[in-house]
């Protein structure tokens, strides 16, 4: 009985213990739930804690401020998910209002930071970012590009060669906003985007408030940087009205400005956008496009005005320079303005490149036609090299500074023909157009001898210039040889017409020898030439016709004895009845009777008339004076060519004169007034006149 009671009591106690454990578990569960509710309540109370930080603002402690914003967002999320709390709606509304104030303060902070650290870049800072070879000297830093213009009459093309070596040069974009500030701006931008304030962010990036005035933050900073550099906002009308000399300088400046803008300023702005909007690519591209659009437009509008202006030959080289800088910047433009938002800017830049190429190609074509049709009436009275010739030759030589550019243009606009042959073909056409024009200009001269002297001078200048330039390799030896022969033909025509037929056979040989020496020995000096003159005419004839100068024969076609018998239909002796050499011949000296005479050997003879000798000397003096007065006004600017002509005449004329005086001088000297016909002074004057022959006016 007692055992049953104990068992019953033990069962009751066990049951009680089980109920107690259940109650304990229930209590623990209730307490756990209460703890959870307390935690939620604590969370609900946190907006009050974050509010103090948010109302204080982000300026002093941005990191804590951003943590408070994040806490607000967490609270809003919690109460939106726990609507059973009676106060949840009130907490959410309060938190949202507080968050709006927080974002507003973030915008102000973003605006303040951006405005404070957005400053125009001074030109000196930009110059420090350039390769050393492009940095201006101290005396020229305020006048960039004044010597960059291209004019065929100038020697200012060294910069073109210099610019061709810039492809691998080191350009270091400037730091536009301090590196320590960019992470802060990046965090602020992220919070604004997270709050759905992209448009406000974009507007602030473009526009800010400074001293209560609305101004373009990044955009105006870029424009002001360019203005300080020297970039001007010019309309098409402004460009059209400018004098070429002024415009040429501005084009040179524009080339520098384009390089600095793209490689330094725009590249620096891209770095700012890329770091500030990292992870927000679409906003980055839009901000970059809107900030740079105005500056790019100012630069490209000037290029467009030049590309679409009236074409003229002097613009060709600056068009080449502008085209080259756009080609140089092509890859940078493609990289910087690659987003969809930048399509318009990118296409405008590439469109300018095409316009420049097309205008340059058309101007190049115009030049050939302009050379052939040049109708300037200004004649060179002395027969020297015409200004058109020097202009065109310089033009052609400068074209070879742009061979790679020309090849690019040919590839873009022409058919599949090899570019070198195209350049050679165009160059030959220009040279032929020049010759055609010179032929027309030569007809302005009334004196046929001066016509040939003019053509000789000009074509010789062409040949000499080609031989000393890259054009020789392109035009080839055949072109050079052919035009050498033309020079010689005009030289022969000149001396035959100017000094009459009787001198031509002797002078032909002399001119041929000198021409061979001149053209085959570029460093032949006048002193060496004078030595050559000591060979006798007979030796010269023998050497020529026996072939000791056979290497010169390709230049001598048209100068053989057979061809020399052909005469121009309008060639006439300048004096009519008696040529200057006939005055010194023994023909006609026989007396028909009467007066005193001497023999041709110096003795008395009735066969030679003193009167005839005097008449010949008088006629010689008159004719020589006439030739001297006329040809002293003529010019052969090339000293070696002039010396060859002078010596060719002197080698025949002076010996003939001295021989005549030696044989017949005593007859005149024994008569009346011998000084009227012959004297030492006359001999000296004759020699000096030939020395100054074809030098033109002093």
TrEMBL record:
Superkingdom of this protein's organism: Eukaryota
Protein source organism: Actinidia rufa
Similarity comment: Belongs to the EXO70 family.
A cellular component annotation (GO) from this entry: exocyst
Keyword Coiled coil attached: yes
Keywords from the UniProt entry: Coiled coil, Exocytosis, Protein transport, Transport
Keyword flag Protein transport: yes
Protein's name in the database: Exocyst subunit Exo70 family protein
